[in-house]
Every structure is written in C-alpha cells, then in structure tokens.
Amino acid sequence: MRHLLSTADLARDEAIGLLDSSEDMATTADRAHKKLPALRGLTIVNLFFEDSTRTRISFEVAEKRLSADVINFAAKGSSVSKGESLKDTAQTLTAMGVDAVVIRHGASGAAYQLANRGWIDVPVVNAGDGTHEHPTQALLDAYTIRKRVHGSSSRGKGLDGLRVTIVGDIAHSRVARSNAWLLTTLGAEVTMVAPPTLLPHARESFPVVMESDLDAVLATNPDAVMMLRIQKERMHHAFFPSEREFSQLWGLTAERFARLSERTLVMHPGPMNRGLEICSEAADSPQSTVIEQVANGVFVRMAVLYSVLTGSEA
Amino acid sequence: MSGLLFAGATLPDGTLSDILVRDGFVERIGSDLKADGCEVIDVGGLRVLPGLVDLHTHLREPGFEASETVLTGTQAAAAGGFTTVFAMANTSPVADNAGVVEQVLGRGIDSGYATVQPIGAVTVGLGGAELADLGSMATSRARVRVFSDDGKCVHDPLLMRRALEYVSTFGGVVAQHAQEPRLTSGSQMNEGAVSARLGLTGWPAVAEEAIIARDVLLAEYTNSRLHVCHLSTAGSVEIVRSAKAKGIKVTAEVTPHHLLLTDETASEYDARFKVNPPLRTNADVMALRQALADGTIDIVATDHAPHPSEHKECEWNDAAFGMVGLETALSIVQLAMVETGLLDWVGIARVMSHQPAVIGGVDDAAGVLAEGRIADLVFIDATSRSTLTTDDLAGKSINSPYLGMELPGRVVHTVRHGYFTQRDGVIVSADVVSRATRDYDNSHTGAGTEVTDG
Ligand SMILES: [Zn+2]
C-alpha cells in the first residue's frame, strides 16, 4: 500500500491484512518496553491543518512506538494562515527530508491531492479530510468490532454476517463514509440512520441501507450501534429543529439503550456529546467500546504507517 | 485597401466557393472569382463559418489583469475563431455605469483582435440591491443591450421584474445567472452520487431550475425578454421548452463544457473541473445536446473564465470556479454535436454566430456570411485531430479542462473586418492587428457604413 487515502481503495485481503498487522502491533503494547525499531531513521510529519488533538496524539504515539522521528506541524499561526498554499507547505516540508506525511485537513480531497498531484513523492496517510473520509478511524472501528466478536481468534477474519448500524450526521461524516466502504468490504451489513436532512442526497451511491426510523432499526437487534458526534451548529442551518428533538428521535437515550440486546456493541468515535447523541448509561456500559476504540486506534495507525513506509505487513 | 481572395472554401451548407474580401467587407461569394490584384489564399479543404460570436466572455479587465486582459482575451478569441465577444460585467470596478463600459469598449477597439461588446451589470456593484445605470449604459458609446450580474444571480424577484421591464425600453435583455443563493450556500459541485462520495457540498439542480421557472413567469408577465445563461440541467431544458411553447420571450445558452463533461470529472479533486454552474450528470449532458439540436437552447456561449494557476492548484473548496473556453469552444461543439450527428455546420453557424449576434443585438454587424456584410470569417480544418497543450491557449490563463485530450477540428484562419487576426494557426502580432483595425476604422468613419446599430 503506497498511500491510505480512502477505504474505498482497500480490497478485502488488504483490509484484513491491516487488521492482522494491527493485532501484531497490539501484542507489543503488553510488553514492558513498548517500542519497536521498525521505522528507526525515518521521519514522519503530522500535517494538521485542522485542530484534532485526539487524532494527532494517536498518530504521534503510533509513530513513536515504531521509533520514527516525528514532526508536528499545526497550521494555526504558521505560514499557512498567512496564505501559503497546501502545495508549497507540503513541498517545503518534504524538501527537508520527510519520509511520510500524515495529513488532517478541513477540505475534502486534500489528502488525495497531496498524494496524486505530483507535488510530493512520499506516502500520504489521510487522517481526516473535510467531510470526505477518515480511513484510520474506520479501520479501528472494524478492528474493535472484530476483536469483540472473535477475540483471540480474530486473525484472518472479516466481519461477515455482522450487522452494524451507524446513527447521526451521515451526510457530513467522514467516519460514516469510510465505514460504509470498509465494513461492507469486510462482509458486514451496514444500516445508516439519520433524519432525511442528514442523509446524503444520492443514497444509492453507498453500499448501505439508509433509514430514518431509529427505533425500527434498533428492533432488528444489530451487532453494533455506532453513534456519531452531532455538530450543534447544524441546528442553525435547518438540518434539525433542536438538540432536544434530535436527541428524542435519533439519540441513544437510556430508554433506547435498555431495549438493546446485551450483546449489541455501543460505539462512538469521540468526542461524545453526552446527553445529546448518546446517554451516559450507554457510554459507560460494558457494551461500550469507546475506550477500546481509542486504544485500538494506536495499533491500527502503527499498522498503516508500517505498511506505507515499508511496503509490507508486519 | 487591397483585397483577399479565399479560394476553394467549403461553405456551411457544403458547397465549394471562393470568397472575395475587400475593404473589410465580403464583396463576392461565388465560384471561379478573378483574383484581380487580390492576394489569393488557398483554403481548399477548409470550412468557412461566419466569425463566431460569444455572448458570455470574462475578459477580467479592469481589475483582474493577472487572469486576463481585453488584449489577451481577444487573442484567445481569435485563436478560437471568434470575432465578436460580449464582455461580462463582473470586473473591478464593476461595469455598472457608462464610464466602465466605455473603457472596456475602448480597450477592445485598441486591441483589434475581436469586436468587444460590453455587457452592463443589472445591479450596482452586482450587489443585487439597486438597479445599475441601465439607461446611461444603453445610450453610451458602448450601446449596451445585454445586462447581466453574471457570477451572481439577480435573486430578488422584485428587482428582476423591474430590470426586465426597464431594459425593454431600449430593446435590452437581462441575461440571468440562475442560481438560488440559499439553496447553493457553500456549494462546490453538482449534488448527486459523486458529491456524496467525495464529501463535497452539493449544488442541486433545483437551485437553477427554481430561478428559471420564476424568471420565465416574470418575463411572460412583463412581456419582456429573458436570456438564461449557461443552462446546465435536464430540468432547466424542460422549463425553457414549455416557456417557448407558450410564446414567452426567452432564449437560452449552453456552454461547451456542459455539452461534454460530467461531474465524474471531480473524482480526482482537480479544480480545473470546478465551474459554476457545475458539471452535471450524463443524463443532463444528453438533454442539453438534444435541446441545442432542436432549438430549445438557442446558442453556445463559452463562459470563458480565466484564473491564475494558484487559484486552481489548491484545495477544491478554496479553488476558483471557471474554465477558459474561447480557444477550444468550436472543437468541443464539433465533438459533442457534429460528430454525434446532432448538428450540421449550418447549425453550428446558427448557434455559435448568427443567433448569439441576434440575442446580443449586433446582428446587423456580425453573425452572417453573405455578400455586402462585414468580413468576419473563420476557416477551420474539421478533419484535423490533435492533443490540446498549453501552447494552444492564447489567453493569459491555462485553466482548461481539456489539456491532454485529443480534440477534433482546428482553427486555421480568423479574419475580422477583412484582416487576419490568426493566420495558418498563428496569432497575428498585436502591432499588425492594431494597424489593420485603425486602417479599417479610418476608411469607414463617416462613410455611411457604420453598421454596429443594434
Ligand atoms: Zn454565470
């Protein structure tokens, strides 16, 4: 794998290979000395044009565990905010001898452009681009589901036959897009639930079922329910009338949570709006994978960086 | 002034003929014409059309000279076989008063590569709040007849009504950029399967169709003329078709790029394909071609929109809307309409020369290939095929979506007012053209041959 830009580019074998490689990375986390020498001597820049402390730290931990040298570049207060282009910034950094770029950007397609426009010639990992994709988030979600369902016999397996429901602002969610491709590639059946205003206009363009009645979907006892963070500002652009109404109709309330089977996983990419899209009872329950998702994020990102920089699986 | 004898041209209807040009006018069209001291140019195998007329060109001057100037934009026009261009009003300052339109007119006269007919803004500063100096632009030396806030939609229904009524006083027309602003807030590309996949904010077809539907009703109610700029959707075609059937005075244009390209081109986030209105679906492209063939859409207009490379080599969301189009328009229309059998060359002459001149009110001076008319001519080699490179782009900017594509047809000679602006595929130098245009003006001033009346 040269770059990781979109989960739509991942074949099933490739995706399972990355999840298996993440398993290998996870075993190192149990050791007293967690560092691997795999990327010693290589320099990775975390190019963050958009604030995201969680994702940046997750990548940074992954990079350091692989012994890479890490440069963090935040756009705020830099030449970028003075009008320097993405092209110039990327070329300037790679001229200094960077071996890979992890990019987070508010514009959809920024990672794709960086990888394919001929501006630079190093691997690019998409850490979230606008409302397009967030592929490492989808990989860590898939890893988390697989681990919960298959435990120590996860290796080599997909998510065949599992039913995953994703709820929230689907239209603007890069997490939903990346999961739509990846989870279905791995064999899961995916249903996305949102008010019609927050579903993509062309629903047939994704290999998933789109619904607006959350209770009807939850009654089918999905294997996992993933709640997405809702942006409160959406309310002001007439996507929904109020937080209270959103929570009533599309939130994982205590009442809805109580109706779920005990084996249904409750997932959230974080940061959570407790009381809006998810209640604390659900978030803090044994069914919740929220903390595991954060931990697994490091292993998955180690596997991705290892793959793009060495051209092989661990 | 000595004449030019173009020998062996293929007329739009396919007949072979010589064309004798003298004193800036077409003196004779016929077979075996005598050279009679004229320079003979062998145009055997080349098709001749009346010089092309573009109703929708962004020349960018004054204000955005880094993108284009009247000189470089009219050179691009000459490269594409255009002899008349209508200059859009969204300059800086905006062409919303007699001073600016006369300045643009003057720059065009100095250039000499094409007749530059300024378009006036509908509202002050394109602000959409109060009417611009419509009457004084109409009565200025620039004789403005087409009014447009292009780039912005005249979305206030009351202002649109008043503008339609007011410009009818002097036979004017409002050219509407149909885009409901609230429905397109932050829009980046056509709303559909591709925008959903790419995570780019959609520009729904209904935002165009809602404005056109409203405007044809206003045109009917006020008994005024409406022109719809760059129609881009199948739904818009249906609205215009039914309005015309009811006798409403509406005309419509389509751009070459909307006749060829779809929203799939955005898949690589290459902002050369970012344009407003956006590239639509294949079904829209097919409906637009059919509508141009059956006359529902009257004309092709380029919406030539030059931008410097830094406004295209950036994130899609930050990139400017628009693409250059003068140099390639005829090739694209040949590809989309002639090679598909939808239009013949008589049809091309109609939609790219005669009808644009009629809508723009300059049909006394342009858009007709006939004896006694001004010699604005273009000679093309329709059998040629070549890959487009930046060398083929004569304007200042290179934001063409067709670079690297193999295109049919090549403009060989462009003749304006009896002199070459492009010869053997090479743009004639600026000093030669400017001397020729001065000679033409000197020999025709006050001689009763002033034929720019609208
Ligand atoms: Zn426009």
UniProtKB/TrEMBL annotation, chain A:
Could you tell me which SUPFAM superfamilies the record lists for this protein? Answer: Aspartate/ornithine carbamoyltransferase
Please provide, alphabetically and separated by semicolons, the GO molecular function terms listed in this UniProt record. Answer: amino acid binding; aspartate carbamoyltransferase activity
A cellular component term from Gene Ontology for this protein is: cytosol
Give the UniProt keywords, A-Z.
Answer: Pyrimidine biosynthesis, Transferase
**In what residue span(s) does the Aspartate/ornithine carbamoyltransferase Asp/Orn-binding domain sit?**
160-307
The segment(s) forming the Aspartate/ornithine carbamoyltransferase carbamoyl-P binding domain are: 2-146
Q: Does the keyword Signal apply?
A: no
Functional pathway: Pyrimidine metabolism; UMP biosynthesis via de novo pathway; (S)-dihydroorotate from bicarbonate: step 2/3
The residues that cross the membrane are: none
Q: Which family does it belong to?
A: Belongs to the aspartate/ornithine carbamoyltransferase superfamily. ATCase family.
Protein name in UniProt: aspartate carbamoyltransferase
Automatic annotation (TrEMBL), chain B:
Q: Which GO terms describe its cellular component?
A: cytoplasm
The Dihydroorotase catalytic domain covers 48-233
Alphabetically ordered keywords of this record: Hydrolase, Metal-binding, Pyrimidine biosynthesis
**Quick check: keyword Metal-binding in the entry?**
yes
- Which cofactors does the annotated protein need, by name? Zn(2+)
Q: Which InterPro entries match?
A: DHOase, DHOase/Allantoinase_Hydrolase, DHOase_cat, Dihydroorotase_CS, Metal-dep_hydrolase_composite, Metal_Hydrolase
Which CDD domains does the entry link to?
DHOase_IIa
Tell me the Gene3D superfamilies matching this sequence.
Metal-dependent hydrolases, Urease, subunit C, domain 1
What Pfam families does UniProt report for this protein, alphabetically? DHOase
Annotated GO biological processes are: purine nucleobase catabolic process; pyrimidine nucleotide biosynthetic process
GO molecular function terms attached to this record: allantoinase activity; dihydroorotase activity; metal ion binding
HAMAP family according to UniProt: PyrC_classI_B
Read off the PANTHER family from this record. ALLANTOINASE
What name goes with this protein? Unannotated protein
Annotated organism of origin = freshwater metagenome
